[in-house]
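Researcher: Before we compare anything, I want clean individual predictions. No alignment, no superposition, just each chain on its own. First chain goes here; please echo the sequence and then give the structure tokens.
Model: Echoing the first chain and its structure:
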Amino acid sequence: MKKILIVGSTGQIGSELSVRLRSIYGSDNVVCGYYLPPFPNGFFEAGPAEEVNALNIEQIAQVVKKYKIDTIYNLAAILSATAEKNPKLGWDVGVGSLMNCLDVAKECKCAVFTPSSIGAFGPSTPKDKTPQDTVQRPNTVYGITKVLGELVSVYYAERYGVDTRSVRYPGIISNMTLPGGGTTDYAVEIFYKAVKGEKFTCPLKPGTFMDMMYMPDALDAAINIMEADSSGLIHRNSFNVTAMSFDPEMLAAAIRKYIPGLEVEYEIDPLKQAIADSWPNSLDDSCAREEWGWAPEYDLDKMTQDMIRALKQKL
């Protein structure tokens, strides 16, 4: 049975991944590393939790040794738009957390999962059906840290034998956790406004296409890539994965099928628009499908129905 440490367990992905991993491997075998509140309800009662600052390698090493951890999920990050407002912090967290996890993994013989992103691509990348292997010249600090993360993970795998694996996440839509400063956050915020019967002000222009994924599929990707037979993995750092591609008007139309009164106006955020314009419209995830059987469950309509159902119960 795996012994897992989640660094960044109270974030957007971590707070839901911890629940899923504990349902699979048992609560006692998944340690939630926390740094900043707020904590999910029942966080400290659900299983072992330890204070872990991702920039403190000694804390990470102590927890790994205490619980005999063999797999680290490194989810510490400052998201794209927030990182552009504080590039030094974005760099320190994006790079520092990964290097610390890799060095601990090297010493303690752990596998490491670190998510990359569509942010690892840039304006010179092919925009439609972006290939697995292509030009990666991002123009954001978030994207630069993701490219570095992919390369240094490959280095640790080849140089030191660390079992590093990764996926390039698109925008992630969740009905549990609130947005955290990402360029794709509008695709979560619009659902809250729709369910509350409020007008939504969109920060991106109509026609701004980006790949997206519903959180249950994002969790499956993180777990399935770590469970995959390593002998079949060619692009272990990092796989394109996606589930759907849409622009704000398509998302609003999907929601209006179930909430006809949704009103949308546009007030463009220049920073977020510039970031979105530098990213792909859609990804080619055929390598992930071929090498470890990636297959999303949710398309736009199925995700929309479930988001509305869940938020109506929640709100």
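Researcher: Okay. Second chain, same rules.
Model: Second chain and its structure:
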Amino acid sequence: MISIDEIKKRVSDLSNDLVRIRRHLHQHPELSFHEHETAAFISRELDKRSIDHERGIAGTGIVLHIKGKNPKSKTIALRADLDALPISEMNNVAYKSVNQGVMHACGHDVHSTCLLASCFILHDLRDMFNGTIKAIFQPGEEVLPGGASLMIEAGVLENPVPETILGQHVYPNLKAGKVGFRPGKYMASADEIYITFKGKGGHAAEPYNLIDPVLITAQAITSLQQVVSRKAPIGVPTVLSFGKIAADGATNVVPNEVRVEGTFRTLEEKWRFEAHQWIERIAQETAKSLGGEAEVNIKVGYPFLHNDEEFTSEMKSGAIEFLGADNVADLDVRMGGEDFAYYSQKMPGCFYRLGVSSSDEPSAGLHTPYFDVDERALTTGTGLMTYLTLRQLFQNG
């Protein structure tokens, strides 16, 4: 096994490249499934180091295999995501997004940079280990159906089949240099809820002649919270939130319909689909009781993310070896969704968090126009992913 000091030295030697690559990706973000220039840039960086790779997987995805001395002995998969968000960046930095209305506000530029640099190091060390490393750069994590599902459909988990998969994600609640782990259920399933409440609109001064869809909507949204407060099994985290209500009326005009959009999230699959039935039933019966109708459309999104208990415990032990116990934290359950869940449903997976704050206080949150990272996290993310990968190969290869 190559020493921790040697890995850290190799990462340190790449420090200028890490910043350069991350800043280029940050400055040129692209929306989900449109990551053409991002993929081209990553491909050029791999070509510079003569690392063979395949492009165009599920549109803009990239897959590469780093083969050791005995490639068939074991396969480890590593994953990063490429896409950015439809957010206008407000940071006043030299590497600010040049694509108006698009921003790497979720750290995918960091994820791709760390995986890319890990590939550089692992490729250089390929004569020192047995097995194969499969690196996956996937598109479209931020929108349904999720690039992970499309990459899997395209066969990225075949030929060879990985035994485990690792992924990391930036975390502004942890200081740069620290990481966090949670075995078992970690992140929620994420489904999109679309409801149209229909009534009979007209003059707001004549409510007795109307079937008011605004009133129906207000009552239905309140009633739907019973799904969480009265129907959810004890001990199963559950969230039902509505973030968009569109009623195209006016101060004196009641519209014919109101459109509502929201999200449902939980960490138990059987309950998840039972809840869908309750959402549809409550919406429709509330509307009917007031003389209206409700059309309910639920788009099934990502499953919940499960970190394999044994594998994640092993990876946490490796992180303690590499970074020290003081720099490895235990995480709480998160109700955010993540399409890495598709991979973790197929094989033992570990999805851990990479601290990116400049202090012990949380930095600007994910998905906000002021999100940025302390770039010292790049060396932590690259070094740890490299070490955890080699640790698996040397222990089991």
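Researcher: What stands out in the second chain?
Model: Residues 190-302 form a domain with the Alpha-Beta Plaits fold (CATH 3.30.70.360). Additionally, The radius of gyration is 24 Å.
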